[in-house]
Design goal:
CATH superfamily: Class I glutamine amidotransferase (GATase) domain
Strand order of the largest sheet: 2-1-3-4-12-11-10-7-8
Structural class: alpha/beta
Radius of gyration: 16 Å
Distance between the termini: 23 Å
Strand content: 25-35%
Number of domains: 1
Number of strands: 12
CATH architecture: 3-Layer(aba) Sandwich
Length: about 210
């Protein structure tokens, strides 16, 4: 019997972090909601979820020591997944909280959604995969994912998927072992479950 991969879901006390943990457990992972350095260091993969405001989340991430653990996991080249605000925290800054630095794992500033659209985007939307990536393997077209956000990552060479919301909006990025999704896979029914399964498989195989 294959041993369950240990995946650390970084716990900094904001939002429904347990939903990501439960989603991973459904796919056979040993998922632990934790800020314990020993557990995170033992983990084969790491997830940084998040909901709410960029500044408040960054304050909590730093206060709980999760910021240092995230950097350590990325430097160790473990498969790493940021979800929703957890994705935004990976960047250097956000227009939502001017002057507040992010984790700086990815370059650039998170930006307000374009003029002329309802903010937040709170709906199902089609995700357009623009370059191959392990987390979207074998997902059936069209790929519908559930979004709740008013800000989005900047366009860059790291973008692997977009959605159309007043123009192309970043839906997912990948940079080495670091992956991130603006949508909520744990709330996205069948395609979201497949996305999370792909992450578990990626961790199991020790690749990114």
């Amino acid at each position: 019997m294959t041993e369950k991969p240990l995946i650390a879901v970084l716990d900094y006390g904001i939002g429904n972090l347990r939903s990501a943990q439960k989603s991973l457990e459904r796919h056979g992972a040993d998922a632990r909601l934790t800020a314990d350095p020993a557990v995170v260091r033992d983990a084969a993969g790491v997830i940084l979820p998040g909901v709410g405001a960029f500044g408040a989340c960054m304050d909590a991430v730093e206060r709980t020591g999760v910021a240092d653990l995230a950097h350590e996991a990325v430097e160790a080249e473990k498969p790493f997944l940021g979800i929703c605000v957890g994705m935004q925290l990976l960047y250097e800054a956000s227009e939502e909280t001017p002057g507040r630095k992010g984790l700086g794992i990815l370059p650039g500033t998170v930006q307000l959604l374009p003029e002329g659209v309802k903010r937040p985007q709170m709906q199902w939307n089609v995700v357009d995969v623009i370059r191959p990536t392990a987390l979207f393997e074998a997902l059936d077209d069209p790929i519908w994912m559930y979004f709740v956000h008013s800000y989005a990552a900047p366009m860059s060479d790291h973008v692997v998927a977009t959605c159309d919301y007043g123009g192309p909006v970043v839906a997912a990025v990948e940079h080495g072992h670091v992956h991130a999704a603006q949508f909520h896979p744990e709330k996205s029914s069948t395609p979201g479950l497949a996305f999370m399964q792909n992450f578990v498989d990626l961790v199991q195989q020790g690749r990114a």
